[in-house]
Structure formats: structure tokens, C-alpha cells
């Protein structure tokens, strides 16, 4: 049975009562208070094995108190909880040495798990951390549960140099996350260099990344520094990493493995000290199966994966984002605007294929083009209506035969390797590309019922189970 004394500080008596009961049921003694002065007195007297504290208290902010606690009792774990659910709060909790940060409201079972983990963990003095300036502007907006999870991961990464892979649809804010990792991390005083792989001609990517020597190729009239050299001591952000050609992938892998590179046309190895943050809007595992991305490079880059949710999965953030973008537009000299409740509900129902970038563009357009101070649903319906330009001829039609779709995919695979052939195993890789969506969609259509799915596919149940294991398909019953 767990044991130990928890010091709980929250000025909300109802929350104190709930947490007292929940922690008491699992065997902890809880001493609770609504102010920071009492908490400090208990700590200075050597009481308590763990602290759970809200950020805002009547007599003192917990972020001002925590450094004193850590100096007096560096091995005392502190769990910070707050209704101010921003990235700044998560970062400040981590910077001040908190064991964990929990945004309110949180699940009581999650709190108990955190407490159990903190009470049983080896006690080590906290490493001093540099505190961020209070006036800094945090680039990420949103208080949804999905964003809270990202804030907590980012806060833990700020004092590390771990390689990060950010995935998400176009317009979700991948570069903003990369910049936050740099601006609030240990390399904040170094350069932040961003490279978009999709925007550089394939034949120039290696020169762009690693630089080249004079005479290395036609037109190389002088030595040029590459992005690795420009980012020395800082962060190199490799955007759209899925568009990097195979030759450049091989060189990048060598840099990650050995910590050095050579310029194009050069022979002398150059040591490098950069943090790599990569991003992609493509499924790299799918590209691996197609032979278009190196699996060993993927694992080198995917040390800490961060998935940015599309805006349609965090619609509760739309109001905050709109206020933020309207404020930006007003700061730039555009007239002040607001959106009525009916219009806001319409925006929350919209699918946002362009994600946060599409929302930002819409808000700026509204601020610039409309004289109305309050924007209603009728205006928004007009702005969100899709123009009837017809489908581009290169896009597949709805009734395109499967064989034609497969042929287009194969053309992309072969053209992606130029004059070379794709790696061996193309047959198996292509089958997996067809099988995974086939089995996933069949299971979704039958709401996870494997008997019905097997009948739909025309295979026996054992074969279906085998394919589920081989393809690592998650089966969720009752959902469609």
C-alpha cells in the first residue's frame, strides 16, 4: 500500500476536498492549504514527501515559490497543476524544476499515477535551469487536450538536444513547434536555420545542406557554406523531410551517425554541432515501404516523435486562434473585428483542410475586405464556399480503375529513383500498401466485427487475424 505525506496547495476548497479524498483512498496522508505561506512553512520545517500545487494562490504565485523550495529541499518532487493551459505554463513548470505539470481539468487516475511514480522514483537534486523571461510571447495557441499533451512534451524537451520528428498535415504549425524548441531550449543563443526540402531542386540539395568547394560542379565559381555550417551551435530544421532524395538521405544518415560531414567536392571531414528537428506531412513508413525513404534514417530522426493534430481535431481552440489572429491584424493597422456566436459555431463545424494556416488567412481576409465590425455566418458561408473551378485534369477521377491508380503509384516510385531501380522487395511492399487500407476500411465498415469483416473480404477468420497482426492494424469495436 502506498504511504507518504503529500502537501497540497490550492485555494479552491472544492478541489482540495476532491483531491484529499482521491489520494486518501490510495493510502496517502494529505495536508492541504489554500495559501503559499502555509505551504512554505511546512516545507521549511521538513514536512511532506511530495508537493501538489496550483500556480495561482492568493498570497504568492507558485512559480515564484518553487525556486525557494528547490533551494531548501532539492530532492522534494513538485507536481504543478494549472488552469492557465498554455505552452508558457508548461515550459515555466519544467524550467523551475517541477516533476510534472498537469493542466486542469485532469483525470484523477492520471494524478494518482503521477504521484505513485514521483513517490517511488529515486530522489536526485534538480539541475538548475535558466528561467524564461516573463514577457516572452509563446508562438503556439490552444488549450485543447491535444495541445496540452504537446506542451508537456515540448517542456520536457527544452533542456535536451534530442532529435525530434514533427508530423502533421500542411498548415498545422510544424515550423512554429520547431522554433519553440529552439527559442526556449538550451540552444536559444545559436542560429535557427530552416530548410524546405520540397523547395530545393534535387540536384542542389546536397550542396544546400553541406556546402560545396570551388569547382565542385559546373557553375561552382567559389566556395559556398551549407546549412549545417550556418546552423553550427544552433538548430537545423529540415522541413518536408519526406521529399529528400535518396542520395542526400545517405549523406544525412552519415552525419547523424558520425557527427561530421564533407562539403560537395571536399575531402576534409568537418565536425558539426547542431540539433536536428525534422518535419513531414507525409507518412514516412509508407515511403519506406515504397523504397523512397531509408528506414535507418527514419529511426535516427524519429527519436522523439511529435504529431500535430489537424484543426478539425482541436475545434475548441478555434475561438482562441481567431482572437489571436484578429489581434495581430489590428496590430498591423487593420480595423478591429469580431465574429458573432452563430458564425463561430459555423467555423467550428468546418473541416479546415488547410488547418491553422487556412484559418489565419481567412481572418486576415475578413479584417481587410469587410467593413462590418461584427462578422456573421452569412459572410463566413460565402468565404468558405469552394469555388467551382472543376477538377484539374491531372487529378484522378472518382471512378478511376484501381489498376490505373496502381500504375500512377508505380510511376512515382520508379521516377523517384531516377536512373536507378527501387530496392528489392517491391512486390511485397506494394501488396502491403494495398492490404493495409483494404483490411482497415473493412474492419471500420463492420465496426470491428471480425466475423463480418472476414465474410466481406471473402477470407476465413484466421487469415484475417494473421493479417491484423502482420499489418499492425488497431481494431476498435463499435466505432465507425
Structural class category = alpha/beta
Strand arrangement across the biggest beta sheet: 2-1-3-4-5
- Work out the strand percent: 5-15%
Number of helix segments?
Answer: 20
Q: What is the CATH T-level topology of the largest domain?
A: Rossmann fold
* Biggest beta sheet summary: 5 strands, parallel
| Helix percentage range | 40-55%
Overview features:
Rossmann fold; about 10% strand; 14 strands; 4 domains; 20 helices; five-stranded parallel β-sheet; Helicase, Ruva Protein, domain 3; about 475 residues; globular; about 45% helix; alpha/beta
Characterization of the model:
There is one protein chain. The chain is built from 20 helices and 14 strands. The chain has 480 residues and is an alpha/beta fold. It folds into 4 domains: 5-120, 3-Layer(aba) Sandwich (Rossmann fold), CATH 3.40.50; 157-307, P-loop containing nucleotide triphosphate hydrolases (Rossmann fold, 3-Layer(aba) Sandwich), CATH 3.40.50.300; 311-383, Helicase, Ruva Protein, domain 3 (Orthogonal Bundle); 424-470, Orthogonal Bundle (Arc Repressor Mutant, subunit A). The strands form 4 sheets. The chain has a 5-stranded parallel β-sheet, with helices on both faces. The protein has a 5-stranded parallel β-sheet with strand order 7-8-11-6-12. α1 (13-25) links the parallel β1 and β2. The longest helix is centred in the last third of the chain and has 20 residues, at 426-445. It starts with a strand and ends in a 10-residue tail after the last helix. The model is unreliable at 124-136 and 389-394 (pLDDT under 50).
Amino acid at each position: 500500500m502506498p504511504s507518504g505525506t503529500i502537501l497540497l496547495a490550492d485555494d479552491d476548497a472544492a478541489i482540495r476536498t476532491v483531491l484529499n479524498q482521491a489520494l486518501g483512498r490510495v493510502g496517502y496522508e494529505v495536508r492541504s492549504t489554500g495559501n503559499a505561506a502555509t505551504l512554505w512553512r511546512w516545507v521549511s520545517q521538513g514536512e511532506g514527501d511530495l508537493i501538489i500545487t496550483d500556480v495561482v494562490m492568493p498570497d504568492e504565485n507558485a512559480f515564484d515559490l518553487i525556486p525557494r523550495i528547490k533551494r531548501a529541499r532539492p530532492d522534494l518532487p513538485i507536481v504543478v497543476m494549472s488552469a492557465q493551459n498554455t505552452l508558457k505554463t508548461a515550459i515555466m513548470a519544467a524550467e523551475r524544476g517541477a516533476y510534472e505539470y498537469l493542466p486542469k481539468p485532469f483525470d484523477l487516475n492520471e494524478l494518482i499515477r503521477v504521484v505513485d511514480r514521483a513517490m517511488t522514483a529515486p530522489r536526485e537534486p534538480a539541475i538548475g535551469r535558466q528561467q524564461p523571461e516573463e514577457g516572452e510571447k509563446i508562438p503556439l495557441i490552444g488549450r485543447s487536450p491535444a495541445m496540452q499533451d504537446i506542451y508537456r512534451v515540448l517542456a520536457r524537451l527544452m533542456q535536451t538536444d534530442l532529435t525530434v520528428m514533427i508530423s502533421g498535415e500542411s498548415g498545422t504549425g510544424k515550423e512554429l513547434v520547431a522554433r519553440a524548441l529552439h527559442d526556449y531550449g538550451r540552444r536559444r543563443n545559436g542560429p535557427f536555420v530552416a530548410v524546405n526540402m520540397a523547395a530545393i531542386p534535387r540536384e542542389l540539395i546536397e550542396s544546400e545542406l553541406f556546402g560545396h568547394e570551388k569547382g565542385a560542379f559546373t557553375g561552382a565559381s567559389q566556395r559556398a557554406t551549407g546549412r549545417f555550417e550556418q546552423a553550427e551551435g544552433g538548430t537545423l530544421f529540415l522541413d518536408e523531410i519526406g521529399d529528400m532524395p535518396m542520395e542526400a538521405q545517405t549523406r544525412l544518415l552519415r552525419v547523424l551517425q558520425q557527427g561530421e560531414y564533407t562539403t560537395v567536392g571536399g575531402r576534409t571531414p568537418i565536425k558539426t554541432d547542431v540539433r536536428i528537428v525534422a518535419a513531414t506531412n507525409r507518412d514516412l513508413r509508407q515511403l519506406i515501404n515504397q523504397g523512397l525513404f531509408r528506414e535507418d534514417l527514419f529511426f535516427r530522426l524519429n527519436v522523439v516523435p511529435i504529431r500535430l493534430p489537424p484543426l478539425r481535431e482541436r475545434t475548441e481552440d478555434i475561438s482562441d486562434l481567431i482572437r489571436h489572429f484578429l489581434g495581430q491584424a489590428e496590430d498591423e493597422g487593420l480595423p478591429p473585428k469580431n465574429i458573432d456566436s452563430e458564425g463561430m459555431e459555423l467555423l467550428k463545424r468546418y473541416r479546415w483542410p488547410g488547418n491553422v494556416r487556412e484559418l489565419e488567412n481567412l481572418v486576415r481576409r475578413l479584417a481587410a475586405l469587410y467593413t462590418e465590425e461584427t462578422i456573421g455566418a452569412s459572410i463566413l458561408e460565402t468565404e468558405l464556399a469552394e469555388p467551382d473551378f472543376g477538377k484539374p485534369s491531372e487529378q484522378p477521377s472518382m471512378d478511376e480503375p484501381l489498376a490505373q491508380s496502381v500504375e500512377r503509384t508505380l510511376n512515382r516510385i520508379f521516377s523517384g529513383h531516377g536512373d536507378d531501380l527501387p530496392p528489392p522487395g517491391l512486390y511485397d511492399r506494394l501488396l502491403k500498401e494495398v492490404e493495409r487500407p483494404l483490411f482497415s476500411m473493412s474492419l471500420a465498415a463492420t465496426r470491428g466485427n471480425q466475423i463480418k469483416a472476414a465474410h466481406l473480404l471473402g477470407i476465413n477468420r484466421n487469415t484475417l487475424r494473421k493479417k491484423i497482426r502482420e499489418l499492425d492494424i488497431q481494431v476498435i469495436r463499435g466505432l465507425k
